[in-house]
Task: inverse folding
């Protein structure tokens, strides 16, 4: 349900990017001194090999629009429904905000640390995320909706996260981003007639950047094994539930987008969860049981609650606000039930790094 104005002006796009809700991407800052103290020497060979891959920059020529790009937009996107147009624009704005969030965070870390390993890594990841955000913004500019990234950086609220929270959340964000993009790419490979916008052609090599960024945080966490045991398992569980639940609710608020691709939102989400679970076993000793019937029921319940919250916001007034409070408490209780479900446990592999094989 639409609770914000349609994205039909640059101002509306900018306001959408600046939204600060449970479902919208956030901007982060962290403890730079603690980041500076990270020691990856126990995984030196893997770390240096990874930095060499970044230095090789196999995507240096990828984020270039072909001459056919604009023509394809004009030919195919002009045929979409108004509802699909709005959901796709919302997807672009959300994706741009997420990519730019990484760009800002990584750039701030590299400017504020002296540790050569972390400084080099953050410089490379800033480069990648800048390309991603710029490429999405070009597609928004096709519709006259380009976002002023400088203004967004200055005016969007920032959230402080301890480094370990950055590691858990950003690792998951990068890996689930890979799983999302590759699942869409493979689907549109099978059914190219459903590729209603050319940006999807770039998703395969694009998501390999996301995969490598996740590998970087996997190495950082495996080099600090205390982050993967004891009480920290409670934080890992929290971020797994939060990231999966946020994705599920957000995807189900865009039913036209998935339908246009020939995807069922629920089946798509659980395929993404399956891929992400398989990947994250490289570093997390626990994973969510995505086939547990209570987990699936709670995910559906969270979407239902969000839909009713949107309706209460649209209603407004004292009654609307009172309903929002009650529904927020119901959402919190549902999240707590998800959090308390049994998780699957497994030993960490000796070899940390993985290949994007999906």
Result:
């Amino acid at each position: 349900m639409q609770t914000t104005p349609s994205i039909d002006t640059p101002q509306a796009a900018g306001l959408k990017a600046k939204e600060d809700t449970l479902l919208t991407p956030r901007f982060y800052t962290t403890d730079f001194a603690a980041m500076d103290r990270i020691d990856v020497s126990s995984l030196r060979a893997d770390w240096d090999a990874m930095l060499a891959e970044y230095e090789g920059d196999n995507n240096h020529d990828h984020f270039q629009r072909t001459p056919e790009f604009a023509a394809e937009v004009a030919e195919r996107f002009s045929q979409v429904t108004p509802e699909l147009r709005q959901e796709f624009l919302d997807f672009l704005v959300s994706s741009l905000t997420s990519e730019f969030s990484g760009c800002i965070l990584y750039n701030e870390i590299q400017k504020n640390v002296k540790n050569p390993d972390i400084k080099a890594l953050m410089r490379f990841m800033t480069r990648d995320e800048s390309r991603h955000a710029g490429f999405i913004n070009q597609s928004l500019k096709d519709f006259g909706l380009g976002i002023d990234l400088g203004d967004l950086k200055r005016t969007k609220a920032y959230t402080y996260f301890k480094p370990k929270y950055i590691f858990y959340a950003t690792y998951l964000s990068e890996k689930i981003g890979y799983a999302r993009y590759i699942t869409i790419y493979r689907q549109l490979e099978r059914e190219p007639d459903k590729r209603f916008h050319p940006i999807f052609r770039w998703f395969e090599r694009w998501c390999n950047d996301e995969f490598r960024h996740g590998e970087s945080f996997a190495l950082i966490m495996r080099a600090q094994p205390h982050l993967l045991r004891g009480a920290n398992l409670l934080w890992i569980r929290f971020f797994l539930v939060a990231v999966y639940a946020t994705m599920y609710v957000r995807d189900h608020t865009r039913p036209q987008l998935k339908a246009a691709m020939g995807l069922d939102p629920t089946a798509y989400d659980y395929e993404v969860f399956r891929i992400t679970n398989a990947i994250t076993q490289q570093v997390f000793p626990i994973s969510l049981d995505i086939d547990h019937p209570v987990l699936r029921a709670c995910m559906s319940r969270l979407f239902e609650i969000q839909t009713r919250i949107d309706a209460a916001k649209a209603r407004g007034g004292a009654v609307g606000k009172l309903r929002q409070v009650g529904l927020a408490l119901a959402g919190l209780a549902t999240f707590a039930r998800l959090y308390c479900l049994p998780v699957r446990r497994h030993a960490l592999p000796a070899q940390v790094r993985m290949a994007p094989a999906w």
About this structure: The CA atoms of residues 59 and 205 lie 7 Å apart.
